[in-house]
């Protein structure tokens, strides 16, 4: 089981440490910020996919970032439909592996969108256990997610956050035990560590501790706070990097991608 998960990572990205760039979607139908035009949503998503591909990233991750405030678990049908339309457009326009994250924690929707749109992986914020968030108590549904994936007959890697950002763990839960539960009992393909909030950096000592608590084949990703200044250290310590805020205008999550910021980030990785 563990070796299979390791080979999936290699099938997507070979032996390199992949850099996955975020596509922060504009508000989708039904959300408070919805602007009334799917054409606008699609145009920006396609533009960001092109910028990320031309900038040299190894994959992209599509996320309904503009849909604040988020549902704690199941999103409505209009969100699933819109995500499927956008993700399919990104898949058609990009040769890179495309991932899906349905915020705040609708794993079944993410799997369904990936299956229908041809995405190659998903990210799940709370895959096992539970976290106290601004949406209230969010609980992992690994038992349902993996069964849905099997029912659909797809081999879909799951990147699962450990003590995800913008959240507080239950009393007594340690990062190491959460990581081990997610790897062994939740059967995640890769584990994602983040800072406390969007754009906040990951403590490399904590990353080292988590890695030491897991088998050697476990893949540990960094999911926030990657910048040109931290890239050299991260590329040495992590098995993958997900980057969003640092590539955007003003370093602000949700703003448009700025080509010069993307270039500076990728050049810092090349120097490393």
Description of the molecule:
The chain has one domain (about 1-270): TIM Barrel, CATH 3.20.20.70. The mean pLDDT is about 95. α2 packs parallel to α3, α3 (about 75-95) crosses α4 and α4 (about 105-115) runs parallel beside α5 (about 140-150). By secondary structure, the protein is α/β, with parallel strands linked by helices. About 40% of the residues lie in helices and about 15% in strands. Strands 1-2-3-4-7-9-10-11 form an eight-stranded parallel beta barrel, surrounded by six helices. It has a three-stranded antiparallel beta sheet with strand order 6-5-8, with no helix packed on it. The protein is globular. It is built from nine helices and eleven strands.
Structural class: alpha/beta
Uncertain segments of ≥5 residues (pLDDT<50)? Answer: none
Number of domains: 1
Question: Main sheet, how many strands, which sense, barrel?
Answer: 8 strands, parallel, barrel
Q: What string, H for helix and E for strand, traces the elements in order? A: HEHEHEHEEEHEEHEHEHEH
Provide the CATH architecture.
Answer: Alpha-Beta Barrel
Estimated share of beta-strand residues:
15-25%
Principal-axis shape: globular
Q: Main sheet: which strands, in order across?
A: 1-2-3-4-7-9-10-11
Assign the CATH superfamily.
Aldolase class I
Distance between the termini: 33 Å
Count of DSSP H/I helices: 9
Strand runs, count = 11
Q: Mean pLDDT, nearest integer?
A: 93
Radius of gyration: 17 Å
Q: Helical amount among residues, as a percent range?
A: 40-55%
Question: Looking at CATH, which topology would you report?
Answer: TIM Barrel
CATH class: Alpha Beta
